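hey m, so remember when u said the tokens were messed up on ur end? i reran from scratch. heres the input so u can diff it against urs
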Amino acid sequence: MKTLSNRTRTLLAAFAIAAGTTGVATSAQATPSLSPTACGNWQVETVAHGLEQLENLEPDGVGGFYLSGDSKVYHVDSAGQVRTVLDDMRAPGGLQLDGSSLFFLTRQDGKLWHLDTATGQLTSPTSFEGNGLLRLPDGDLLTTWVGTEGGPSRGLSRYFHESGEVTKNWSMVPRSEGLALSPDHLAVYTDDLFTGQILRVPLDSPNEWTVVGRLPGLLPGPDDLTVSQDGMLYVTAHIEGAVYRVDPKTGATCVVASGLSGGWTGPSSVRIGPNGDDWALYVTAFDGTLRRLVPPVGVDLSPVGG
């Protein structure tokens, strides 16, 4: 019930902010928006269903994924078989895998956890409040704070892995949901649930962020996002129930898939993962389903570093 209550407050706040940011909405009308068919015909497949509300996912490197639910961390293998890795956790959020080390956040108690997936050993190294999670090339971690979780933090915070110290408000973006590393490793992308804006944050000057695009519509509700090696962003629109492709160079958008269960049950996170000898998008949703979005011929979904 606590999760639903927070999401209710989030939506009400989002409508209030959207209604009060006429200038933002007006300027965003000039953002290029391609036709609904510009992304081509993507095939939507169900990989797993009937799980808890799914918040995030992380590829395991061998064709499967780790998923975070209301209180569980799941593993789904390449054949779609699901097992519960951890239970009775306090609202797991963002996940990041480094070798056999799975890092994840719990949103209700503001903890950063480390699970050794080879031994099953679980430790909680530090307090680190947030939702989304991204491991940088130097090993540091970033988290997002959309502004509805309570507490004083906002924007992006950074965990320095060598010292164990946390810098809150490392980047003072107004609000933030998802996180993705740019192909050149010089910046991260995040998004604003309330305004629909997509932001680029330089790693060497994190407060000089810029708006590179915006999802169309009054309140699409962008959540998590990922980026392919060619620089295209793929963004979940939680409230609308869609996944968009966004070109950060031009701001142009098109719909990859729609009708993926909207409102409170819409898509929450997206990652690139293997699909046979090629690549596909994998999308979690609050309806407890993991879906695979298979691109049309000619779409290069090679992941960053892949």
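this time it looks ok to me. The first strand starts at residue 43 and ends at 48. if urs says something different then somethings off w ur setup not the seq
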